[in-house]
Amino acid sequence: MAVVKSSFLDKVLGRIGRLDKEGLQTVVQRLARERTFLETLFNAIEDGVLVLDEAGRILYYNQAVITLLGGQNQVREGQSIDRLLPELDWASLARSDDRGGIRVTRHEVEITYPRQRFLSIYSAPLDGEESGSSGVALIIHDATEARAKTFAAIESERVQALTLLAASVAHEIGNPLNALHIHLQLMEREVRKLRLEAQPFVSTTPRRVMGRRKVVATPSPPHVQEAAEKIEKYLGVAKGEITRLDYIITQFLQALRPAPVKLVMGDANDVVRDTIVLLRPEIDNRGITVEEHLSRKLPALPIDPGQIKQALVNLVKNAIQAMTKGGRLTVRTDEASEGVVITVADSGGGIPQEKINRIFEPFYTTKKKGSGLGLMIVQRIVREHGGRIELESRVNQGTTFRIWLPTRERQPRLLGVGSDQ
């Protein structure tokens, strides 16, 4: 394939020997104008342009190269490409240029300075098809954002496929769990009957004791009574585990198929009180002290009481499970700027700094028997109310969650007639 040359340069080169002083001056001026035009054009584009000689030294670079590769002090003419961009295999590029032929090649490199980026680099020899090395032109494109979008799209498709699969599996698991629960209840009834039959019974046949005829109670075999007690214990454990599995599946389905928010004007204090009443048996069983500091002058909020209660139940349960016997749970409500803040704090062991950033990720949990879905559900509920959630935690001092909910419902933005926005 022939190289298309500039018609102006072609004409000049054909008669350069016949040009006088004025003609050469005109040519130089024309070339200077073209150079200025090209430099303005190259500096206006976002992709970096680098021109290298046959030894890999920089002959020209545009403004984008400075931005992409480290600043004004890091890029200069005459600098070796190996020092500026060590991730690029210059030796391979030079060999390709030396063999000749028009070869536009694409390379992908990852750099870490001045910040982590993924670069797509297109290289083309300056001498076109000719063999030998005259240098290489590099076009450097920042592919970081495009790469992130690609990965995000792939991850979104993967999560969607897993979600559909998981929802189907959760539904199928739910049916056997219900059947197991029913049959465990039937087994409990049979065990209760067995224990009644194993009670000491009164013999209807009189026996002669010390010369007298008496009706004597005949004890049941001891192993029957022990077996009935063990079976009841095992059934209790099995029912507890089925209840836990059912709770996990319920949370999972709520995370996959969240119910739409139905906002009504409500009182945050009422939701907090209902949550504490619901969890009071578990709180008392663990010997935890509850401190309630509920503001008396809270404005009404547009909330879905059921969903906000669900969010608080998850936060309070997490707080309870984070503390040992004798811990302190603090629940507070306060009026804030254009909203209300609900605070749930515990005196537990806290969350290490390296785990805080992952705490809202699905299926990530710091508990031995957690599902890793509770905080994800809390975050979704708060966001759908137009609010936000904050987390503060210190190791060996406790964890505090703050939920901010707006006092006014978000209104859709309407464009006026004739608006250009």
Question: Explain this structure to me?
Answer:
46% of the residues lie in helices and 21% in strands. With 421 residues, it is α+β, with helices and mostly antiparallel strands. The chain has a 5-stranded antiparallel sheet. The longest helix is centred in the middle third of the chain and has 54 residues, at 144-197. It is elongated, with a radius of gyration of 38 Å. The two termini are 49 Å apart. Mean pLDDT is 76; it is low at 1-5 and 413-421.
Write the topology of this structure:
Elements (H helix, E strand, L loop, with lengths): L6 H8 L6 H24 L3 E5 L5 E4 L1 H7 L11 H4 L5 H10 L5 E7 L5 E9 L10 E7 L1 H54 L3 E2 L4 E3 L2 E3 L2 E2 L3 H35 L7 E3 L1 H18 L3 E6 L6 E3 L1 H18 L5 E9 L2 E8 L6 H4 L17 H11 L3 E7 L3 E9 L15
Parallel strand pairs: 11-13
Antiparallel strand pairs: 1-2, 1-5, 3-4, 4-5, 6-9, 7-8, 10-12, 13-14, 14-16, 15-16
Helix pairs in contact: 6-7, 8-9, 9-11
Q: Ranges with pLDDT <50 over ≥5 residues? A: 1-5, 413-421
What's the number of extended β-strand segments?
A: 16
Give a short account of the largest sheet: 5 strands, antiparallel
Distance from first to last alpha carbon: 49 Å
SSE-based structural type? alpha+beta
- Strand order of the biggest β-sheet: 2-1-5-4-3
What does this entry show, briefly?
It is built from 11 helices and 16 strands. It is of the alpha+beta class and 421 residues long.
Relevant terms:
421 residues, 16 strands, 46% helix, 11 helices, 5-stranded mixed beta sheet, alpha+beta, single chain
